[in-house]
Write a structure and sequence with these properties.
By secondary structure, this protein is of the alpha/beta class. The chain has a domain of 233 residues: Type I PLP-dependent aspartate aminotransferase-like (Major domain) (Aspartate Aminotransferase, domain 2, 3-Layer(aba) Sandwich). Helices cover 44% and strands 13% of the residues. It is built from 16 helices and 17 strands. A 7-stranded mixed β-sheet has the order 4-12-11-10-9-5-6, sandwiched between helices. It has a 4-stranded antiparallel β-sheet with strand order 13-14-17-16. Strands 1-15 form a two-stranded parallel ribbon. The longest helix is centred in the middle third of the chain and has 36 residues. It is globular and about 60 Å long. The N and C termini lie close together (11 Å). The structure holds pyridoxal-5'-phosphate (PLP).
């Protein structure tokens, strides 16, 4: 099976304006390509299970809710309230936290909300530097800057590929920031939460951990739980290693902070919070409850095996002296092959989807052609790939950088990808029956 729905485009062409059919064709072609024919190594992406997709494609996507469950500004939300309350409950259990705020519609909105609660125009925040993987929302170019909060970089230890703890503690004591942000978009090793939490608290600062990338690893207990290590607040996306719908979430155990967060996310940063996300996120919570440990475990094994295989295929893989990676990511330095921009493009021609990325040796100005590639194994792990499969992917990648015609490699990739068309780490139910009798619009 390649696509669930075979669309009869000649029938549609007879009935619909040509331009409209073209729109459907583009979407269909995208789905077939990205979902079933490419090896997706974008570290911030994932796929929902068909079960979660079923919950996602509901009438809730058409409805409006402002405010908190049972205290809405609109009628018609009896069932939405039920789902939202259950989500806060189940997610709280899954992550062992008291308060869950699920209304942030993305990780960026979660950060905006928390930064607004903790800082004000002119206050200072100490944040991981770009080399340590900070996200654009942590910088003057993103929501932090829009709120007028000053970004002061935490010191970086190039050897450890992490924040320099001793220097960071000194800087915290010196600057006395309002808050500190750890966690990032490009990192192989966990940031030192425990080490910095005490220093933060001693000057009255809060420690925020941005778990956008690693939320699924935390659910699967393969990444240090930031709150258990002293963080006051966690922000995250719900669609990276946590394989739910695109969205955001905020956790805390602090009642006062939670109340401030709940009062800020609405009305400041969302009015409606995209309600169809909620049941799909809830389904994903159950999947992570039952399969999260096995999933996170396989992600970690695959990332390690992939890094080792890439190194033995001749790639420069970062972090060798530290065992390459502890996350879902692998970082390559491809400057010897012409740089990240060129190689990412060539790999795309071979149906291997990656993104170019700055690596620690790059100046921030190298953003258009950085030396690196960031690879993430979480999505292909969800499609069922194991260590040996990633060794095969490393071989495909070598063929491309060694100058083999990418269109030849692409044929091999499409053939290889046919073995991985089913989403793993979910409940084994046959939704096709429901699909055909009820005509639920599951993804094509
Ligand atoms: C992806 C990411 C975000 C933003 O999340 P969106 O859901 O894309 O808005 C925030 N922080 C970090 C560290 C990220 O990697």
């Amino acid at each position: 099976m390649v696509c669930k729905v075979v669309v009869d485009f000649s029938y549609l062409e007879a009935k619909l304006p040509k331009d409209l059919v073209n729109v459907l064709e583009i979407v269909y072609t995208h789905n077939k390509w990205r979902r079933y024919e490419t090896i997706n190594l974008i570290a911030s992406e994932n796929v929902m299970s068909p079960l979660a997709e079923m919950a996602y494609m509901s009438d809730m996507m058409h409805r409006y809710a402002e405010g908190k469950p049972k205290k809405r500004y609109y009628q018609g939300l009896v069932y939405v309230d039920e789902i939202e309350i259950k989500l806060m409950d189940v997610m709280g259990d899954l992550f062992n936290v008291k308060y869950v705020e699920p209304r942030a519609i993305s990780g960026t909105i979660a950060n905006a909300t928390v930064f607004k609660v903790l800082g004000e125009y002119g206050s200072k925040a100490l944040i991981a530097p770009v080399q340590a993987g900070s996200h654009v929302s942590h910088t003057k170019y993103g929501v932090l800057g829009a709120l007028g909060i000053e970004h002061i970089e935490l010191p970086y230890d190039a050897e450890e590929m992490n924040i320099d703890v001793d220097k960071a503690v000194k800087l915290i004591e010196e600057v006395k920031p309002k808050f500190i942000v750890l966690g990032g978009s490009v990192y192989l090793f966990p940031h030192p939460v425990k080490e910095l939490a005490d220093a933060a608290h001693s000057v009255g600062a809060k420690l925020v951990y941005d778990a956008a990338h690693v939320l699924g690893l935390i659910a699967g207990k393969r990444w240090r739980h930031p709150i258990e290590h002293g963080a006051d607040i966690v922000t995250a996306s719900t669609h990276k290693t946590f394989p739910g719908p695109q969205g955001g979430v905020i956790f805390t155990n602090d009642e006062k902070l939670y109340k401030a967060i709940a009062k800020t996310v609405f009305p400041v940063f969302v009015s409606n919070h995209h309600l169809h996300r909620l049941p799909a996120t809830l389904v994903t919570c159950y999947e992570m409850k039952y399969f999260g440990e096995a999933y996170a475990d396989q992600i970690i094994r695959n990332a390690r095996a992939f890094a080792e295989a890439l190194a033995s295929e001749g790639f420069k893989v970062l972090g060798e002296h530290k065992g390459y990676t502890m996350s879902h990511q692998v970082l390559l330095d491809v400057s010897d092959y012409g740089g990240g921009a060129k190689i990412a493009k060539l790999l795309e021609e071979a149906n291997i989807i990656v993104n170019k990325n700055l690596i620690p040796k790059d100046p921030p100005t190298a953003i258009k052609n950085p030396s690196g590639l960031r690879l993430g194994v979480q999505e292909m792990t969800r499609w069922g790939m194991k260590e040996d499969d990633f060794r095969e992917v490393a071989r495909f990648m070598r063929m491309v950088v060694e100058g083999k015609d990418p269109s030849e490699v692409k044929k091999k990739v499409i053939e290889f990808r046919k073995e991985f068309t089913k989403v793993h780490y979910t409940f084994d139910v046959d939704l096709v029956k429901i699909d055909s009798s009820e005509k639920l619009p599951l993804l094509w």
